[in-house]
Structure formats: C-alpha cells, structure tokens
Amino acid sequence: MFVSQRRLERRPRSRSLFDREIITRALVDSFKKLDPRWQYKNPVMFVCEVGALVTLIFFARDLGGRGPAGFDFAISIWLWFTVLFANFAEAVAEGRGKAQADYLRRSKTETTARRVVNGQAETVPSSSLRKGDFVIIETGELIPGDGDIVEGAAMVDESAITGESAPVVREAGGDRSAVTGGTRVISDRIKVLITANPGQTFLDRMISLVEGAKRQKTPNEIALSILLAGLTIIFLIAVATLGPFSMYAGTVQSITVLIALLVCLIPTTIGGLLSAIGIAGMDRVMQRNLLAMSGRAVEAAGDVDTLLLDKTGTITLGNRQAVAFIAAPGVAPLDVVRAAALSSLPDETPEGRSIVALAKQQGAGEQEPTNATFIPFSAYTRMSGVDLPDGAKIRKGAPDAVVAWVREQGGTLADALSQDVERIARSGGTPLLLATNAGVLAVIQLKDILKPNMHERFDRLRAMGIRTVMITGDNPLTAAAIAKEAGVDDFLAEATPETKMELIRREQSSGRLVAMTGDGTNDAPALAQADVGVAMNSGTQAAKEAANMVDLDSDPTKLIEVVEIGKQLLMTRGALTTFSIANDVAKYFAILPAMFATAYPAMSVLNVMHLTTPQSAILSAVIFNALIIIALVPLALRGVRYKPRGANVVLRENVLIYGVGGIIIPFIGIKLIDMILATLHLT
Amino acid sequence: MTLVGWLQVLALFVVVLICVNPLGKFMSRLFSGERTFLTPVFGPVEKFVYSMCRIDPEAEMPWYTYLFAVLAFSFVGFAYLYILLRTQQWLPWNPQKFGPMAPDLAWNTAISFMTNTNWQFYSGENSLSYLTQMAGLAWHNFVSAAIGVSVAVAFVRGLANRNIRTLGNFWVDLTRSCLYVLLPISVLGTLLLVWQGVPQNFHAYQTVTSVEGFKQQITGGPMASQEVIKELGTNGGGFVGANSASPNENPTPFSDLFELWLLLVIAASLTNTFGRMVKDQRQGWALFTAMSIMFFIGLIVCYPQEASGNPLIHQLGVLGGNMEGKEVRFGVAASSLWAVATTATSCGAVNAMHDSFTALGGLVPMVNMQLGEIIFGGVGSGLYGKLVFVIVTVFVAGLMVGRTPEYLGKKIERKEVQLAILYIIVTPAVVLIPAAIAVLIPAGLATLGNSGPHGFSEILYAFSSANANNGSAFGGLGPNLFYNVSIGIGMLAGRYLEIIPLLALAGVLAHKRAVAESAGTFTTYSPIFVTLLIATIFIIGALVFVPADALGPVAEHLNILQGKVY
User: Fold this and answer.
1) Which SS3 state, helix, strand or coil, does residue B411 take?
2) Is the CB of A252 inside 8 Å of chain B's CB atoms?
C-alpha cells in the first residue's frame, strides 16, 4: 500500500544569508517588530523607540512654528531608522531558519500507517500513532513516526531531514536502529516500535528549533543584556540631569537634543545586534547540518575544556583491517585460519569482515557452520565468536578478556604470544587473541588507519586551551601508540560505559566542561552527563534523546566545529559590546560642544572634528549611530574572524580592533557624515 | 613643576611600595586566622573582647548575616554619636563650654563619621568638646575604617572560597582590624607626630600675644592621636577646620609626608592581602599597578595645572604657580600631591583648599571621587570597589576571547553582572540626581560661594565627595538644611547602597565552584588586562560624568583661557 509516490524533495542545505527572498521578508518583518510589545524585551532599543516617538511628537508640536521642526523631523526619522535597522538585523538572521522551517513543514504531510494490533495490521492515520505502537513499513512508504526498528533492515532515504541524498542502512539491533518520521523506506520491510507521540517527533522539534519559535536567551546573552540595561540606566541619569545643569548654565536644552544625546550614548550598536548574533550563531550550527536543541548548548560548546573523542570513526577510519595471523607455538597455521574464519563469518563489523577476507586469502573454506550460535561482541565481554554444535567454542577479542575466558574454560595459555601482543599494541595496531575452549590459538593483528589531518586539528584545539581525550576499547599500549600518532593529549583505554562516565564526572568535578559524541544506547547516560553531547543521527533514539545536539551527517569530527562556533558567538558579542561602548567618546566630542555653543562659546575648542553647525553635529552623530548598526549586520551574522589561538593573544587583538578601533572610527564617520550634510546644504 | 616636586612624589610612592608586601602579608595572615607576631600581645585582649561581647569567633556568617551585622553595628554607632553631639554641653571634657550641635547638622555629622566620609559642615575647634572628638569622632574613625576592611576581606573570601556559603565572621574581622592593624600604627604614629610638634593635651585654648602685639588664640586638645587615625582610616575629618593645612595638625615637611603615607598605606597593602588570600599574588600586584597608574595620571594632570597657575592672574603681573588657598609651607607640589592622594583614597583630609585650585587642577580630585573611590580608595572600600570594576572588565573581555568570562576560576554570569552593575549605578545616581535637584531649587543655590561654572563645580564636588565617602569639599559651599540633609543621604547611599549588592555578590561568588584554568583562559594580571581595566573604569565610571564636568571645571577652564570670569 503506497501512501504517496511523490518523491521527497531534498532539504536544501545552504543558502546565502542575503538571499533576495530572505531580504524581502526581513524588510517587512522589521516594520512588524516596531510593535512595542516586542521591543519591550530589549530595553536598549525600547528606549530608542520611545525616543523616536517623543521626538516625533515634538516635531508635530514644532510644526506650529514653536521650534525647529525640520531638525526635530530629521532626528526623529533617524531614530526610527535606528530601531528599524536593529529589527532588520534580527529579521535577516531569522530568515534562513524560517525558510528551512517552511520546507520541513511541507515534508510533514499527513500519511497513513499500518499499525500492528494482535498480529494483525490495520491502516490508521499516522497522527493517531502513540508511543509503544508497532508499525510495518515496506518499500516506497513513508515512515509515519520516530521509532526503533525491532525487525528487519532497510535502505532509508533520509534526504528530507539531512539533505544528504545517499540512502542509509537502518537495521534492528545495534546502534543503527533509529528511524525518523518523514523519511522513506526505499527497499525491504521493517517493523518499527514508535517512540514519540505526534507533535513531539524529531521533525516537529526540528521545525520549532530552526524557526527559533521557542528561542530562549542563552545565559551569557542574559548577563550581557543586564549589563546593557545597566549602562542604559546610567546614561539615562546622565542625560536627564543634564537638563537642569544646562538651565543653571543659562541655556535650555530641547528635549529633542537630549534624546539625541541619550540614544547616542546608550549601547544601541550591541543592543540592536544582540539577538541577531545569537540567532545567527544557531543558524551557523544548522548550516553545518547539526541540530542544537538549545542555544545554551552552543554557548556551552565555546566553554568546553575537554573533548572526549571516540577513536573509531573520529580519529581513525571506522574499518580496522586484519593484516596478519600469528600462530601460537605448536598450532598449525591452517587451523588458525579456519578458526578465524569460523569465528567471524556471521560478524558484520568491518573488523570481522576483514578477518574473513584475510582468512580466505590464506586458504580457509567458504562453508558456514550449521547450527552454530553466534556470540556478538559486547562492550562488557569485549569478545565475539561462535559456539559450534560439537561443543567447541571459538572466541576472538581483547587479549585480557580472551585470556580470562580461556582460563575459565580450563584451556592452555600461550605465553609466547604475549610478546607479540605487546609488540602489535605498541606499534598502534590492535592485537586480538583467537582461542578455543581448549586454548589460545593465535594473535590477529588489526591495523588502525588514521584519518588525515587529525594532528593539525588537535594542535588547533590545544592552542584554544582544549584538551582532547581519545576513548577506545583498545588496551592501553595500543591506545597510547595511536594517541601519540594522532596527537591527542590523553586517552582512556579499555573503556566501558562506566569508565567513560567516571571520566566525565572526574573532569567535571575538577571544574572542566566536557563535550563528547556518541551513538549507541550505552552512550546515552554519558551523553546526558556531558555538558555538550552530540549524538549521531545514525544512532539510537536513546542517544539522540540524551544528547543536546544531533549531527544529521553523523560525522563525529564535527564536534570541533561546534566548539569554534560557540567561541565565535561569544567573541562577536564581546567585540561589538566593546566597540559600542568605545564609540561614546567621539559622540561626546560631537554633541557636547554643540549643546553648549550658546552658553559657553569657549567650548567650541572641544569641537575637534570641526563639525559645521551645532545642528549638523548632533544630526551627524545620530546618523552615524544608526548607520553603524546596518554596517555591522554582516559582521554580526557571520561572526568575527576566528583563529584558534591562546586567550591572551585573542584578547590583545580584539581590544586593538574593536576597542581602539571603536574609539577612532566614529570620529571619522561623524566627520564624513557632517561633510556630506554640509555639501547637500542640509544643515 | 620642579624636580624637587617630583622627587617628593617619588619618595612617597617608594615608602608606600616598600610597605605593601610586609603589611599585606601581615593582614593576610591575620584575616586567615593564622598567628602573627602581634598575637602574643593582642591575642589575650582579643579573647577578652569575644568573651565580654559573647562572640563565638568560630561562627561563620553567610552574606546576609554579615550584612545585617554591618548595618546593625553602623546604626547603633550612628545613634550613639548623634546623642553625644546633642548632649555634649552636659558632658565632661568641654573646657570651651561648647553647646549642642543643631539637629540637622548633628544628623549630617553623625552620618558623616559613621560612613567614613568625614564631611565637615562645622569647624571642630569652634563646636566640639574634647569628649566628642575622642569618644565620638575618633571611635568612628577607627570602626568605620575597620568596617571597610572587614567588608573587603569578606568579599575577598567570596572570591577565594569554593562551594561555601559563608564569608567569615564580621565581629572577628572588625575586632582584628582595630586591634592588630589600626591601633598599633596609630599609637606609634601619634608618638611620631607629637615628636614633630602636634599638640596632645586637654587644656583649654591658650591666648597668647603675638610678635606684632595682637592677641591670638592657640587651639589645643588631643590632636595627634586624632590626626593619625584621620589619615590611616582614610577618614579625613580634621580636629580643626583648616585640617592638615593647619600648622598644629601638620607642622613639618616630615609630618606631611608621614600623613600622606598613612592615608595610602593600608589601601595599597590590601591589594597584596587580596593576592595572598586568593593564592596568586600576581592578581594583587595587577590591582596595585592599575591603582598606581591611575594615581599618576591624576598627578600628571593636576600638578602642571597648579604649577602653571592662572593666566588671568599672570596678566596682572603676578607670575608663577597657583598659590591661592595653599600653605606657603607646602607650596604647589606638596599641595597637588596631597589633593590627588586624598581623593584617590577616600580620605578627604586636605592641606590646601581645593576650591582655590585651577579649574583643571580641581577637576582631578573631582574625577578621582566620581570614579567611586577606587584608585587606592578608602581602606577596604577601595579594594572592593576596584574588584567590582574588575568583574565588569572580565565580563566584557571574557566574551571577547570566546569563553564564559571567569575571574579567579569563578564564572561571571547573570547574577554577578546584575549585582556588579547595581553597585556601579549607585555612584551616578547618588551624585547627579541630588546635584540636579540642588540647581533647580533656591535652597540649593542659596549658600554657593561663587556663581558661574565654578559655583556649579562646588555643588557637583559636594555630592561627588559625599557619595565617595571622601569628605573633602570645595569650601565655597555653605551649610543649610537642604545640604545637611541631602549630603547626609548621599553619604549613606554611597556607603550602604554599595555594601548591600557587594556582600550579596560575595555570597554568590563564595558558593560557586571553581573552573579549571587553561590556555583558553586569559590572565587577569597581564599588562593588556590592566590597560583594559583602566579603560573600563574611565569609560563606564567617568564617561557618565563628562557632561556634568564639562559644565563645571571644563567650562571654567575654557572661559578663563578666553578671559571670561564670573
């Protein structure tokens, strides 16, 4: 039964920030956001909007000839622009997410599902599925909801969610059992246990996340907002008291001029761009095909001190290759080859397959044993193998685990092999012991293949002050050799879920923030414990639920990029705050001499920019204040330039660029605007 | 400017610098409860005080208990001094038979001494009995300084403690500050000043016939003992109205240098105590460096202004530096140095009249106070005020390096920023709002000594001084009901509205666990951080006062250059 044959659109992965469609929508939204109920959330811009409104009222009053209506009008217009520019920045930042959400909503079409009740399949609307239901899905059908495969395996087209067009294998058992509602089965038949109620599916969550509908301010953003609100209050006091002070000096300042000064002094640049920076940071994460469950997680990524990286798939390529069998003294090579093949025939792991391939190459037969019981690998036994019908048991696995098993079975140990085990381990290979219940047969040498460029990446992380720890089930010798080759700072060998958890707790109790990736169900507790947990989309539902980010590409190295995005996010906020505050110096030099030109003509000495008239000076400062917001939108959305370096170097450079630059640039900007105003005879 | 002038500055700086380490170490041991070389002498006294007052020295206080103790102790002290001022006519040791102080002036004076301000709308030699001076004012000179040290130490414990809710015991900190630090230095200092010629007696004032044949009244009293704690506790309230400009309070060049040393030494040494208590002395030296740089910036502006004098007076043919309102004994250099030092700390004792400084020379003391007494600051209050600015600087700088900002391993998050900014808002609010009211109402303008920008400076200076708990004045401003009350409120707010968020902040910090340091953490003792700290203090602390200062000293200066006077 085919619900819909329409081929799913592939989710578009990236799009320019300044796409025409996004800009058009943002222009409209900037006006919608003038609503005071919206502005109220941002105290700095709210003050600015109130100022714009008050100056507009004074303009209306002055139209009757009571004052300089033209000047009031110019100030008011530019104050409105200041608010609109800030709104526009936020709207553009939201644009890409909104476009993505629109797309995802389209793929959330209502389908039907075949629910299994008492062994009978019945057709129901997918919206009536509940947690705990079982459904059957066949070739060509859409998966009606999130779940875990309990029977069968299938090729699944997940492009609607991930944007990746190559289909992926999903199968029952193991760590690749999760399927996502809205994706399509393109071959085979699977039975799925539904794990999410309608409205709480991955797709639903994804829509609300990319749209930013439930966006909450992150902890740092809140702290910064408080600082900005505090500065606004401080400058409000300064400007409000300046009215009476001027009267003492014998000159009455118009409300318009005081408001102009106030808006110039309060940190409108960072205040106007603050939420855009946060949204854009989340958007950059999304562009990397990562789904962050909260902005808090992205921000925490910037603070990470310790990165736990699984060796396999992150540091090395997933497939370790068997390269040699080393027989124990007195064991015939052919027996070794045969036992190796037997132990691994049903083993679908890349290692298992490579052992079979090597065994065949060395003369092992093809036949699969009948009635044999395959013992799959587990993180606890750290062995796999077969129990043959004749009572013989074959195991291969971590040397210490196999030795313990042989001892338990009463078999003979081969001490001579221990040297080989050590040699292989020391060289960064993985030694596996092969044994029957009668005794140890041989060492299987597996070789790890390191991913390219990992050394450089770890060097970069070290420069940022982040320690990398490689997590591996290998024995300590192997782990040490690979760790050295890859350039990680530390390693956890013979890792079990418990030791991993213990490591995370230990790091956290000494005040470090820990990030890790994981995919298996037994990673779930550690993912939940870690400050930043990234689950692979290919992983189990449990892992995805425990994590605070899901990588749709299932690429564990992406964690490193998340850290960089998190850092960049904070740096952008810090840099623009510094810039915004430093701007005040020049604005004082523009506005104060203008305000007191009549009371104290001597103060014109302070008009260091030689601005044409008092009115043009004030107007130029206000215009600069508005234009700088729009000029900084690209920086706010893309983030400041980021290079992985030590904190002291970064601090020095950013202080120079945004602090010293923030003092100098407005002098030039205000002077230029004043010259233009003078040329156009607008003063 | 003269070489000798700068040598005086250098000499002062060196004698202060020499003491920073040993005194800092001593106080660090003292407040950490370790044995000091004075323990054999004062240990029994300390135990006696605890048993008399039923204090359990082991009882640790959370921030709100500590705060309550500070407030309660201060209030009782205020009531005691107020009653003393109102009843001195019936009490002993009043050889000049002074009457009671008027209620509003007594209110102002009691607050003034309780808050470590020592704003004086009276002249001691014409209104206060010896008993009031010794048992009332001197008592507050000791305990108000000790409160400052205690609060600072509690705040440092907040930074140093990990996962604890308590900040120490206020009564213990208070007792130890007085007993081990303030008293011994005061006793030795008094002897030194008596040797230099400062009076210490209980006689009535003496009338003598001068060389010219005029009758002159010579003020006496227990002056030397009061003098030392006046500077050491950064109190500043002179025994006589002329303060340290009077030859009785400050007779010789040596006493001048010694008194300057007294007013700087504890505030400067506390940076070292801080460094030791947080187990990283470099942090303390970073603060000391920032303070020293800001001190010299003030001096570099003030001294040349005073040395070059007033161009309008030069036109009259009177050349040289600005000597109006200065003691000829001290001259321009020592007076400028004193003005900068007394406002860089929250002392407020003067050896020259700030009202008579040149416009920009007078701007320096004003800006120093408007920054919130943090250059060296009052004893204790300087350190904690500085640390609040450090926290704000760390927050902005931390964001710039891409990490949740942290100081000494404590993350600076929402609550910390909230409390720090509450602390910082106090200064502009308490200085500017009353000043705006003053210029709007007749009572505010009634007692001004000058008109024009200088008159405005007098008002602005008064409220800056009150908020900063400094106590020095542009002398032109006279007392009336409005100023007695409003300056009283300013002093109260400047002290306690800051201590409340500060101790709350200490409580929040103490409870935090520490985060580990890495290459991603920027160091808070590097030159770049010190530079950033100074820039932040000027931008956040001073920028808000730019419009007001522009209408006062800056306008006056520019007008003088154009030959315009009021």
Assistant:
1) strand
2) no
Question: Do the Cβ atoms of A230 and B424 come within 8 Å?
Answer: yes
Give how many domains chain B has, as a whole number: 1
Check residue A219 and give its pLDDT: 87
SS3 B206: strand
Q: Flag whether B407 is in a domain.
A: no
Q: What's the mean per-residue pLDDT of chain B? A: 92
With respect to residue B354, please indicate whether it lies within any of the assigned structural domains.
no
Q: Classify burial at A485, counting beta carbons within 10 Å of its beta carbon; exposed 0-12, middle 13-18, buried 19 or more.
A: middle
Indicate if the pLDDT at residue B189 is higher than 90. Answer: yes
**For the CA atoms of chain A, what is the radius of gyration?**
33
Q: Is A418 exposed, middle or buried, given 0-12, 13-18 or 19+ CB atoms closer than 10 A? A: middle
Span A375-380, average pLDDT = 75
pLDDT of residue A428 exceeding 50, the answer is: yes
B187 lies in a domain?
yes
Is residue A279 within 8 Å of residue A97, measured between CB atoms? yes
Cβ contact (<8 Å) for A646 and B432? no
Predicted pLDDT of residue A1: 35
Which tens digits make up the pLDDT trace of A297-331?
Answer: 888 888 888 989 888 777 877 667 888 888 888 88
Q: Give the C-alpha separation, B212 to B382, whole Å.
A: 47
Helix, strand or coil, per DSSP, at residue B360: helix
Distance CA B125, CA A671 (A): 58
- Can you tell me whether residue A410 is helix, strand or coil? coil
Test B522 with A244 for CB contact under 8 angstroms. no
Radius of gyration of chain B (CA): 23
- What local confidence, expressed as pLDDT, does residue A15 receive? 63
> Do A568 and B551 make contact, defined as CB atoms within 8 angstroms?
no
Query: Which residues make Cβ contacts (< 8 Å) with residue A537, sequence separation at least 6?
Result: A158, A161, A162, A178, A180, A544, A550, A551, A552, A553, A554
Walk across the sheet containing A168-171 and list its strands: A168-171, A153-157, A184-187
**In the Cβ-directed half-sphere of A68, how many Cα atoms lie within 13 Å?**
14
Whole-number percent of chain B with pLDDT over 70: 100
Q: Tell me, what's the pLDDT at A5?
A: 39
Q: Return d(Cα B318, Cα B403) in angstroms, integer.
A: 60
Count of pairs with CB atoms under 8 A, one residue in A, one in B: 221
Q: Give the model's pLDDT for residue A363.
A: 80
Q: Does A461 touch chain B (CB under 8 A)?
A: no
What is the extent of the structural domain holding B247? 31-279
The dihedral built from the CA positions of residue A161, A164, A168 and A174, taken in this order, carries a sign that is negative
pTM of the model: 0.87
- B99 in any annotated domain: yes
pLDDT of amino acid A318: 64
Is A25 in CB contact (< 8 Å) with chain B?
Answer: no
Asked if pLDDT for residue A368 goes beyond 80, the answer is no
ipTM: 0.94
pLDDT, tens digit, 9 for 90 and up, residues B283-327: 999 999 999 999 999 999 999 999 988 888 888 888 888 888 888
**Residue A642 has which token pair?**
């980021």
Q: How far apart (Å, rounded) are the C-alpha atoms in residues A49 and A28?
A: 18
Contact residues, chain A, for B429 at CB < 8 Å:
237
Cα–Cα distance measured from residue A665 to residue A660, given in angstroms and rounded to the nearest whole number: 9
- Name the minimum distance, in Å, from the CA of B549 to any CA of chain A: 10
Q: What count of other Cβ atoms lies within 10 Å of the Cβ of residue A250? A: 11
CA distance B521 to chain A (A): 6
Alpha-carbon distance B564 to nearest alpha carbon in chain A (angstroms): 9
Say how far apart CA A267 and CA A235 lie, in whole Å: 10
Confidence of residue A233 (pLDDT cuts 50, 70, 90): very high
Statement: residue A7 has pLDDT above 60: no
Q: Which of A320, A414, A666, A648 is nearest to B400 (CA)?
A: A648
